């Protein structure tokens, strides 16, 4: 019943902080399991936020308000001091307040979306680093998130770079294979 951000902070973030700095010897699978569960949760929240009708609605509201404010500004510039001018000026102030409120909601929504994306990428890379247990799932999911957001430098530059440094290169060899082979065949090649 709690918000996903609250769940992340109260449960997943604490689990991750408990694992940070712990010696992996003998516990690699357990660590990978925790990281994998965190990654799955973050990825689900990212996709839910991405597909949220609220995001589309706020984007439409913001675009419409900007257009409305622009047209009203042009009309205000043409009018002289009249009662119509004063009414338009009041309407303009109200529209600007609504634009600011909708823009804030849209911005917060995008921050939550980007945060879950970064968390999912980070957790999948930690999972791949910790153990071979989730290689088939985590490598594909990691690459899927990375490639789906390939052009978003602001979100992914540092996150993906750090994640790639963490992941053993052998776990991403399937990206370099020229001949199309089933992923299961690739796994038996290791």
How would you characterize this protein structure?
It is a single chain. This protein is 78% helix and 0% strand. With 190 residues, the chain is mostly helical. The chain has one domain (4-189). The two termini are 43 Å apart. The model has no long low-confidence stretch (mean pLDDT 87).
Q: Topology of this structure?
A:
Blueprint: H1 4-19, H2 28-50, H3 53-78, H4 83-130, H5 135-148, H6 153-166, H7 183-189
Helix pairs in contact: 1-2, 2-4, 3-4, 4-5, 4-6
User: Element order, helices and strands?
Assistant: HHHHHHH
- Mean pLDDT, rounded to whole units? 87
Instruction: Please state the overall shape, judged from the principal axes of the Cα atoms.
Output: elongated
Q: What distance lies between the first and last C-alpha atoms, to the nearest angstrom?
A: 43 Å
Report on the biggest sheet.
none
Helix content: over 70%
**Beta fraction:** under 5%
Tell me the number of strands: 0
| Low-confidence runs of at least 5 consecutive residues | none
> Which structural class best describes the helix and strand composition?
mainly alpha
Number of domains: 1
Radius of gyration: 24 Å
- The number of helices is 7
Task: Give a short summary of the structure.
The protein is an all-alpha fold and 190 residues long.
Keywords:
190 residues; mainly alpha
């Amino acid at each position: 019943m709690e918000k996903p951000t609250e769940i992340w902070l109260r449960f997943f973030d604490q689990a991750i902080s408990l694992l940070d700095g712990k010696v992996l010897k003998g516990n690699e699978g357990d660590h990978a399991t925790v990281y994998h569960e965190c990654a799955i949760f973050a990825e689900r929240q990212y996709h839910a936020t991405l597909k949220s009708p609220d995001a589309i609605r706020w984007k439409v509201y913001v675009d419409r308000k900007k257009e409305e404010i622009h047209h009203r500004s042009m009309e205000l510039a043409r009018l002289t001091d009249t009662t119509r001018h004063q009414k338009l000026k009041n309407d303009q102030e109200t529209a600007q307040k609504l634009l600011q409120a909708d823009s804030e909601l849209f911005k917060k929504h995008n921050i939550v979306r980007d945060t879950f994306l970064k968390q999912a990428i980070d957790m999948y890379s930690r999972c791949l680093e910790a153990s071979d247990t989730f290689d088939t799932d985590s490598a594909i999911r990691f690459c899927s998130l990375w490639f789906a957001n390939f052009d978003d430098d602001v979100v992914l530059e540092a996150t993906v770079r750090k994640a790639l440094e963490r992941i053993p290169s052998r776990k991403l060899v399937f990206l370099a294979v020229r001949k199309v082979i089933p992923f299961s065949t690739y796994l038996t090649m290791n």
